Amino acid sequence: MEKLGYLLLAGVTNGSVYGLVGLSLSIIYGSSRVINFAQGDFVMLGAMSAVAFVATAALPWPLAIAGTVAGASIVALALDYVVYRPLARRKAPPLTIMMGTLGAAIAIYGAALLAWGPDQQFVPALFSLDPMNLGPLVTNSQQLAIIGAFAMFLAVTWFTLFRTRLGLSIRATGVNPRVALLMGIRSERIVQFSFLFSALISSVSGILVGPLLGGQIGMGLLLTVKGFMAAILGGLGSPFAAAAGGVAIGMLEALMAGYGTSLYAEPAIFLIILLLLFVRPYGLLGDYEAQKR
Amino acid sequence: MSAIFSPPRQASIYPALAVLALGAALPYLLHGGFQLRLAMLVWIYAILCMGFNLLYGYAGQISLGQQTFFAIGAYAFALLQLDLHWPAALAFIGSLIVCAVVALALGVPLLRLRSHYLAMATLAFALIFYGVTTRWIDFTGGSSGLAAPPLKFAGAPLGRMAVYYLVLAFAGVALLLHDFVARGAIGRALQAIRDDEIGAAALGVDVIRYKLRVFVLAAVFAGMAGVAFTIVSLRVDPSMSEFHVLVTILTIAVVGGLGSRFGALLGAAVVIVLPQTLVRFGDLETLIYGVFIVVFLVFLPNGLAGLPDRETWRGVATFLKMNRGRS
Amino acid sequence: MRRQYGIGALICRRPLCVALAALGSLGATGLALADPLPLKICMIDDRSGAAADTGIESLNGFNMVIEPLNAKGGINGRKVELVVYDGKTDPQLTATYATRCAEDDQGLMIVGGSPSAPAAAMVPVAAQNEIPYYILSASANNLTDDAQWQFRFGPKAAQDAIAVADAFAAIGFKKVSVINNSTPFGTDTSRSTIKELTAKGVAILTQQTYDIAATDVSPQVVNLRQGDPDVILVFPYPADGARVARTIRQLGIKTPIVMPRVGVMAAFRKLAAETADGILVPISVDVTRPEVAKLYADYNAKFKPIAPSPSPAQGYDAATLTVAVLSDALVQKAIDSGDLAAARKAIRDATERLGKFQGMQGQAGVTYQFSASQHHGPPDQGFFVFTQVADKGERLVAPDMSQLKPKN
Questions:
Q1: pLDDT per residue over A174-219, tens digit each?
Q2: Which of A43, B155, C260, C353 measures 20 to 30 Å from B76, CA to CA?
Q3: How far is the C-alpha of A221 from the C-alpha of A210, rounded, in Å?
Q4: Of B21, B9, B59, B291, which Cα lies nearest the Cα of B196?
C-alpha cells in the first residue's frame, strides 16, 4: 500500500513537470498554431539562471527570480520578432515556423554553451530538500513546490483564458486569426503575449526543477520531447488537455516502473502514445482542427 | 510552392545526368581521402534528404522519423550479414525490403494523421527505435553498436575509390528516381495533395495510396543512404537515429529548398561541408548553426534552389518594406 | 594553422595552393622527402557535449606533460604540436575528424575517444589509414579485441565490474540491488557489472532503470528494498545520482551504496550534500600515492579544481607514453626520414615495446601491460581502489573497508 502511495506521488510529481512543459507548449499553440521546439530551452534557461544569479552572483532569491523571468522574456520576445513574425507575415505554413523554432532552439543551446559550459552543474534550491513527512510517505518541500506550482499555473491559465477579456481574445485568435483581426483583436500582440506567458511558466518551472534534475544545457531537449508527447497525448485543443497528458505520462511511467519493467518503460510509453494516436488521431481530448472538419 | 500557377516547363533528364557526370569526375578534382570522405557524406545525406524532400517538400507529409529509417537500413544491412551470413548484395536488397515493410506497417495507420500529430507520431516512432536499440544490447550491440564487415570484391576489401563510385552509383539511382517522380505526373499529384487534399481527391487523385507510396519510397531512400553509410564507415550504432541527424536533414531541406529538384543535393553540399569550415570557431559553432537555419528560413524560404526565382527577391523586398514601417 | 576547407579549396588555383596540394598528395603516398615530419598529434574528443568533462580533463592532463616538454625545447629540438578537435560525442563527426587528421593534417597519431561510440567509430579509420590511436576512457569491452592500431588506457566496463565483484566477494556481500539511469552509460555499465557479479555467485535481487528526466525516482527506489540487499549499486549521471541518493536516504534505507565513477564528481556531491556521505566509489586513481596526489594538486592549481576523476591521469599517462615512444631511436629515424607511413608503424611498434610502465592510474606497483598481443593497457587486478565521500559531500577519504559487513 505504501508502495502504491509512492508510485502515485512520483507519478504526480513527474507528471507535474511534464504537464508544465505541455501547458506552456499548448499556450503558444493555442494562439498561433505553432509547436515551439525551443520550449524545453526555457526550462533550461530557468535552471541555469538560478545557477548564474544565486550560485555565481549570490543574489537573494526574489531578485534572482525576477532576473530569470526577465531573461526568459527577452528570449521569448526575440523568438517572436525574429522567428514568428517574419514567417507568419509571409503566411508560411506552421511546420515551417516550427522549423524556425528548432533553429532558435539550437541557437539558444549554442549561446548557453558559451555562457555556462557543458558540465552538469549544481542548482541551488529555493525550497528545502530535507526529508519531509507527508502521511506515511517521505518527500521534500521542493518536490511539493513543483506540484503546487503546476496547480497554481493551471489555475492562473484557466482564469486568464476563461474569465478575462484577454483570454477571450486569445481563444479567438487561436480559432481564426484573420477573423479575430477583423474583430479588432491585435493578433500579433496576442501571440506575443502567449510567448511571454509560456516563457514565464517554463522558466519558473526550471527554477523549481533544476535542483532535482541538475543544471545542464542539454536538459531542454529531453523536456521538450516529453512536453510534446504530453501535448499530443492530451490533444492540442486546450492547455488543460496537454497538462492532463503530462500527468498521464508521469503516472504511466511510475506505475510501469513500479510494477513492470523499468528498463523498457520509456520506449513502452512512447509506444502507447503511438498506438493511441492510431485510434484517436487528435489525441485523447481532441483539437480545434478536428472540430473544424 | 508557386509551381502550380506558372506554366509547366518541359523538365528534362539532362541536369540530373550532368550532376552525375560531375560526381564521377569529383575524385580527380579533390585532394586526399578526407575530402573524398566528405564528398561521400554529401552524397549519402543527399539521398537521405531526397527522400525527405519527396515526402515533405512535394507531398507535404512531415515525418520526423526519416533518420530512423536511415538507421534501420544500416542495422538490417549489418545484421543480415553478421547474424544470417548473407552476402552483401542480398543483404542490401533485404535491408531495403525491411525499410519498406516497416514503413508500410507504420504508414497505414499513421497517414490519417494531420501535420503536427503526424510529426509527433513519427517522432514517437523514432524515440521507440532509439530506446530499444540502446537497451537491447544482445541484439544491437547497445550504444557502441556493431562493426559491419567491409565489402569485398574477388576476396579483397574494396579500396576507397571503389567505395566512392559505389556510393555515387547509389546516389545516381536515387537522383534519377527522385527526378522521375518529381518532374512527372506523380510529382504533380503529390503537390496537389500537399496544397489541398480534398481538392486533389475531387480531381481523382487517390490520396491514400499516393501518401502511402511516397512514405514507403522515402523510407527506402533513407535505407539506401543507411547502407551506403555503413559501407563507408564500417560501423552501425544508435547515433544514426539520434536527434542531430534529424536536425541535419531538416537543415539541408530548408537550406537547399523544399520541393525543388536539386535542393537536397545543394543543401547537403553546404551543410556537410560548412561545419568543417566552422571548426576554427570552436564553441561558437552550434550558435552559428542555429542562426543559419533561422536566417535561411526567414530570408530564403525557397532555399538555395530558389535563388534563381524572382519570387525570392520579390519576397525579400516585400519583407524589408513591410518591416520598415512597423516598430 | 589550419587551412581553409570547403568548396573554396576545390577550386583553389593559386600557385601556393597547388604547391601545397602537390606536397600533400606526395606526403599521402609516402614518398620520402628531405624534411623530417612535424611531431603532430591529433586530440579528438568531446569538448562540448555530454562527455565534455572527460575530453577537457584528459586534454589538460596530456598538456601537463607536453607543455613543460615544449618549453624545454621539445623532443630532439622539435616541439610537439597538438591539433585539437571537438567530436561532440558524435561518432560520424569524430570519424570524419579522424580521417581529416590522418589525411590532411598528416598526423603521426590520434589520441582521444572517451565515450564508447565515437571511440569505436575511429577504430576503422585508424585501421584503414594505418595510424596509431590511443583510446582514453571509452569502456566498451570489445574495442581492443584483435586490435591492430588502437591501444586503450582506460579500464573496460568489465574491469570496473570485476573490481566491484572482487571487493564484494572479499567482504562477503551476497545480495545486491542495482539501479541505473536509462542512458547508454547507465545501462551498459550496469549490465557488465551484473554479469561479473553473477559469475562470482552474487545474487542480483533487482535491476531498476529510471529516466534522467524523472524528477521523482521513488518507484524505482522502493523496489530496491525488496529482498533486503547487502549493498546497492548505482550507475547514474551526477544530478540524477543525487536524486537517487536523496531518495534512498529519505526512505530510511541505510544499506551501503556503491556508485562507480560518478560518486566523486563535484556536481553530484554538491547536489546530494549530506546524503552523499558514506557512498563508496571504485576509481582507477589512488590518491594515496604521493605522485598521484601531486598530479591532482597541480591540476587543481593550474586549471579548475576537480574531483579525482581518471581522465587527467589517463591523459597524463597517454602523454608519458607518447613522449617515450616519440623519443625512441627507431621512431626518430622514421620521422627524420620524412616517411609518414613508416613513422606511424614505428610508433605502433614502439608502443608495444615500451608499454609496460607504472602510470598515474592503478595501485602502487601495478603497470600497464601493452604488448604485441595485448593492446588493452589496464590489467584485471590491482587497478582499482575504493574511495569514500565524507563531510556532507565536501571531501573524499580512504574508506575503512573492514567496517562493511554483509547483512546475515
A1: 777 778 888 888 888 899 999 999 999 999 999 999 888 888 888 8
A2: B155
A3: 14
A4: B59
Most confidently modeled range among B230-244, B294-308, C217-231, C309-323:
C309-323
Residues of A in contact with B66 (CB under 8 A): none
Instruction: Give the Å distances, CA to CA, from B155 to B158, C43, C146.
Output: 9, 35, 21
Chain segment C149-174, per-residue pLDDT in tens:
999 999 988 888 888 888 888 888 88
Cell of A131: 526529508
Closest to B40 in 3D by CA, of B152, B163, B219: B163
Q: Is B52 on the interface with A (CB under 8 A)?
A: no
Which residues in chain C have Cβ-Cβ distances shorter than 8 Å to B234? 124
User: Could you tell me the pTM of the whole model?
Assistant: 0.83
- CB C239 to CB A214 under 8 A? yes
**Could you tell me the residue ranges of all domains in chain C?**
15-26+35-155+292-354, 158-283+385-403
**Angle formed by the axes of helices A94-116 and B285-299, to 10°?**
160
C253 reaches A (C-beta below 8 A)? no
Q: Where are the domains of chain A?
A: 2-292
Q: Is the ipTM of this complex over 0.90?
A: no
Report how far Cα B118 is from the mean position of its chain's Cα atoms: 18
Q: Do B30 and C6 touch (CB under 8 A)?
A: no
Q: How many angstroms separate the CA of residue A206 from the nearest CA in chain C?
A: 12
Pair type for strands B152-153 and B156-157: antiparallel
The span from the CA of C233 to the CA of B149, in Å, is 37
**Is the domain defined by C158-283+385-403 classed in CATH 3.30.450.20?**
no
Helix H, strand E, coil C: the string for B208-274 is HHHHHHHHHHHHHHHHHHHHHHHHHHCEECHHHHCHHHHHHHHHHHHHHCCCCCCHHHHHHHHHHHH
Which chain C residues are closer than 8 Å to A251 by Cβ? none
Domain C15-26+35-155+292-354 -> CATH class: alpha beta
Dist. CA C367–CA A72, nearest whole Å: 53
Q: Contacts of residue C223 in chain A, CB cutoff 8 Å?
A: 257-258, 262
Identify the CA nearest to A75 among candidates A203, A240, A161: A203
| CATH code, A2-292 | 1.10.3470
Q: How far apart are alpha carbons A106 and B271 in whole angstroms?
A: 15
- C-alpha dihedral (A206, A208, A210, A212), degrees to nearest 10: -140
C-alpha cell at A166: 484577454
Asked whether C79 and C37 are in contact (CB, 8 A), the reply is no
Chain A interface includes B144 (CB < 8 A): no
C-alpha–C-alpha distance, residues C101 and C107, integer Å: 5
| Max Cα distance, chain B (Å) | 71
Query: Which sign, positive or negative, has the C-alpha torsion C358, C359, C364, C368?
Result: negative
Rounded-to-integer distance, Cα A107 and Cα B293, Å: 9
Query: Is A118 in contact with C187 (Cβ distance < 8 A)?
Result: no
How far is A256 from B17, CA to CA, in rounded Å? 55
Which of B2, B286, B302, B323 has the highest number of chain A CBs within 10 A, making it the mutation to test binding with A? B286
Give all strands (DSSP E) within C159-314, no chain letters.
Answer: 175-181, 203-210, 231-235, 257-258, 280-283
- Outline where DSSP puts E strands in C39-132: 39-45, 80-86, 109-112
- Backbone region of residue C247 per phi and psi (left: phi > 0; alpha: psi in -120 to 50; beta: other values): alpha
| Domain C15-26+35-155+292-354 identical in fold to domain C158-283+385-403 | yes
Q: Check CB contact under 8 Å for C10 and B29.
A: yes
